[in-house]
Amino acid sequence: MSELLSLPAELLESILIFCNGEGHPLSVAALAQVCRQLRALVYDAADRHLWRALFLKTFDDPRLLHSDVNEDIDWQRAFTERIWASNFLQRTARPLPVSPKKRTLRSNTSIMYPIDSLPHAQDSDLENHVRLLNTLLSVIKSACPSPLHQTVSPSEEDSGLTGAHARTPVYPPGAQVQTPSLNIAWLARTLSHGLPFTLAQRIFSWKVVGYGHNTTHNQCLGQLTAYLGFLPIPTVDAETDDAPPPPSPSRQRRAGKSRAAPRDERETEAQDMSEAAQRARARHRARPRAFCMDYLSRRRNWGPYLAILPRASDDNDNDDNGDGVDVLDALAEVSDSDLDDDDDADYVPLGVDDGSVSSSSASPEPGQLPLVPSTGALPTPEQLRPDWAWLAAARVVAECKLRQHVDAEDIAKLEDWDNLRGGAWVPEHPRPGPDDELGDPEKVEGSDEVAEEWRKYERDWAGAEGIWRRLVCWLDYDDLIHHNTLGGFQDDPDLDEAWIIVPLSLRIAGYSAPSLPHLFPDRPTLHVEGEMGGGGWVGNFDGADEDVRRVHGTVSMLSDGNVRWSTTSTAPGSNEDEWASESVQLGGVGSAMGTLGMWTGAFHEDGDPLGVIWQWRVG
């Protein structure tokens, strides 16, 4: 011990950093428990240089994302939260022992019965789950920017949308290996065994609204699923030495579990626990949410957003009535059946601290919920929050449809977690200084005589201008009405979504003031227009456009820092609007993962259909 204490502090710190880099992050805490002198070295240093070095040995530097992030980062908290998350998953996310024998499956409902019968999460689990999910989300959000993807310049012989379709791939180009992300690599290692059983069960059972007032749980799980896709539980042969032993009582207590689950693991021996079966179960549970026509509501802005609730005194009024009132008064209890009511009584969750290491103040303070819009008004950008539970269902439906018809290699290009990194399609622009000239006031109608400050930032900050691919999923209208009328989606083995992937070409037509100038003054609203393949698009490379629709819309910011994409397409052979879509960026701004959202009728009439869209840029 005396020899160890005689070493210089700098050498001891280097040893700790080396041990952490070799995959032993707990060595830091272990050394601090040896004696007071070593504890002071770890926890009582005058600055946080040791914790910064430990963090940067394993994770991306968050200062690369925001120029205003400097020494306000709590390196110790950020590092210890992520190590806690890794250890928590090691204790609770284990491969499921199964028998290689499978019985004949009679319905989708029976595929995952053992998972449904696993113990329900207890209160202590919910706390740990939210902490885990927020930590994982913070790792994604603070991943280093992606290298700029190369765009394909149009050639003289290009012929409109058909030419753009011919010269670009269907799926995003692969990530640049010369600039890997430590965050994404850590995420892949940490989630190699998936999520804990009780979290996976939430996706399999797919409750519309669960856990009473604890809505952050569903939203955090939904956001992670929308980002990463469905994470199946790995399985091992129960008769091999690789099968994990049942958890010890002490491990169960540390994991926050109230009872063990060996009975459930034995039951899995008679069940089909293959990845395909798990995905089929998740898809079966996602459809009722993704294709629920009650989501088409003014309070949701006819998109994948959380509903703005009316005050209690307006319960007997029409769907869109109600003066402004704080939503906190309406957040009592919401049952699972509320989504089926005509008043679309969903929830708006409390503010969520995503655990991000960023010190940005762009997000509103927790508890600052929006007011209900006045009669006939749409929710404002500050009031809109993505409904990540719906977006997760949309992601499951979309990816399962792709896996039915697309090569695994192409799917891997799209679902690569590196695609969540921001900046893949954002062209480099020098940040304007205080003396830079402002943009042309004539470019936007209704501009003030004195140009606003935001005009200095007129640029494609979202990576919108280029060639995209859009996946569109929908149900046959008779099936959509049938299952919505029955009050739920029955176990219909013949039910399947129609789908199409069409090209989409966008260009920036102009700019207007930021949707939230007090939060994002450097991100003006982008006005886009272009062309998109319609339902009759075939994709012939003969130089002649087929079913081509005009597209127009906007790209703007939401108050929680997410990017909102609103587009409208016209009817075939006409300039009249037909379909409208609302989608949210997956991952960082300008990510290669693209946007995920909902489409419906442009005029929001009774009986309008709805479906899923997932679009990604390819050039």
From TrEMBL:
Residues 347-361 have a biased composition (Low complexity). Residues 1-54 form the F-box domain. Residues 148-174, 237-283, 334-380, 424-444 are annotated as: Disordered. Residues 335-346 have a biased composition (Acidic residues). PROSITE patterns: FBOX (PS50181). Coiled coil: none annotated. Residues 428-444 have a biased composition (Basic and acidic residues). This is F-box domain-containing protein. It comes from Ganoderma sinense ZZ0214-1.
